[in-house]
TrEMBL record:
This is Membrane protein. InterPro entries: RND_pump_MFP. The keyword Secreted does not apply. Keywords: Coiled coil.
Length: 409
């Protein structure tokens, strides 16, 4: 009997007790607490919106060229007997300076001959006037009435007078040729190139050299139609609206020169489809004034032109302007929003927003991948909310409870 109990009944009781214990423990087990996982809000950098009055500056570039440029051409024939020391490439001269002289011997002889011919014509005229007077007296002594023109020698007197006028004209011509043997500077300037040399025989039409004026330099600046819309063309007097600042790097230094916008060429270039405006710089070589660096002809310069003024616009970085003229902002609820804006002007660096932004908006400066409207964000520099600061502690407590429950099983 005892053997039957040990071999049959006892194992059955153990199994039943084990099953009952397992069921009891299963009923006593508590499931782990469930906590909702929440992602922290995106941290973004923002800046405030500050409308302001902005004066637009239009950028361009161009080459410095002389306003006056002249090719010196001989008007007489002869041998060059004098060349001025300053008549070399790069030499400076003043208005009226003698640059080249041609041999004058033949022209002086022509002047003397013309003076002699004039004196002879004047003597013949005086003699003819005396004959006319004698003819009038003889006519009156023999008869009365009006004397005929031939009897009073009027044709002979007119011929003598014409001879005098012709001699005077010839004298003026030879004197003019004599003055042309001296080539003088027509203005203050600089020699660009020289083609005449001492002892060289030149003829009428020979190019002696090229000179440029140093009083004023010009810079042709190309502008697009968009740029022209923000440009105030020059008035009769120099104002802030037609001032230009030229810049260039010279010997490793960034230099600048003040200039004045004086005119527009008024025609679009057929190839580039741009319009040229002209700026002027007074005394670029500082010959009459001091205080500014020398601005050489041929230098390539950048130009910043003072344009029109815009009232109450917002300047933002150009990369913040999204396609379709949209701006990503953070509203008063700290959520991302897209604003459709009206752009007054856009350059490579900035965009100028005329309207479309609200006063409570802040510009989102951080790069956000695939931003969605309504996304909650955290503003860099602002204090965090209590939920955000306590969230790590709550997650840690939940993790500890789950581990304890698993261990109790």
């Amino acid at each position: 009997m005892s053997s039957f109990f040990v071999k049959v009944i006892l194992p059955v009781l153990v199994v039943v007790f084990a099953i009952a214990a397992a069921v009891g423990l299963a009923k006593l087990r508590q499931p782990p607490e469930k906590t909702e996982e929440s992602r922290p809000a995106i941290l973004v950098n923002v800046s405030g919106i500050e409308p302001d009055n902005v004066v637009y500056h239009i950028s361009s570039q161009g080459m410095v060229t002389p306003k006056l440029e002249t090719s010196l051409v001989s008007e007489v024939n002869g041998r060059v007997v004098m060349v001025a020391e300053q008549f070399v490439a790069g030499g400076f001269f003043n208005k009226g300076d003698l640059l080249v002289r041609v041999e004058q011997s033949d022209y002086l002889t022509n002047v003397k001959a013309a003076e002699a011919a004039l004196a002879n014509s004047q003597a013949m005229l005086a003699e003819e006037k005396a004959r006319v007077k004698v003819a009038e007296e003889e006519w009156r002594s023999f008869t009365s009435g009006t004397a005929p023109a031939l009897g009073l020698r009027q044709p002979q007197l007119a011929s003598a007078l014409a001879s005098v006028q012709s001699a005077e004209a010839e004298l003026e011509r030879v004197r003019r040729d004599l003055s042309r043997t001296e080539i003088r500077a027509p203005y203050d300037g600089m020699v660009r190139s020289r083609a005449a040399n001492l002892g060289q025989f030149i003829s009428r039409g020979t190019v002696l050299g090229s000179i440029v004026g140093t009083d004023v330099a010009e810079i042709r600046l190309p502008l697009t139609d968009t740029d022209m819309a923000f440009l105030t063309m020059p008035a009769a007097t120099v104002t802030e609206s037609n001032k230009v600042t030229l810049t260039s790097t010279v010997a490793g230094q960034q230099l600048s020169w003040p200039a004045t916008l004086v005119r527009s060429e008024g025609m679009l270039d057929e190839r580039s489809r741009v319009m040229y405006v002209v700026a002027e710089v007074t005394d670029p070589y500082q010959r009459k004034s001091q205080g500014q660096p020398i601005l050489n002809f041929g230098r390539f310069v950048g130009a910043s032109i003072v344009g029109s003024q815009a009232e109450q616009v917002v300047r933002v970085a150009r990369h913040l302007l999204l396609p379709g003229n949209q701006i990503l902002v953070v509203d008063k609820d700290n959520t991302l929003q897209f604003r459709q804006v009206s752009v007054d002007r856009a350059t490579a660096q900035f965009a100028y927003i005329k309207d479309g932004l609200e006063v409570t908006d802040q510009l989102a400066l951080s790069a956000i991948s695939n931003p969605l409207a309504g996304t909650v964000v955290r503003v860099a520099g602002a204090s965090q909310s209590i939920d955000d600061t306590e969230q790590p502690t709550q997650l840690a407590d939940a993790a500890a409870k789950a581990a304890a429950a698993v261990k109790g099983q």
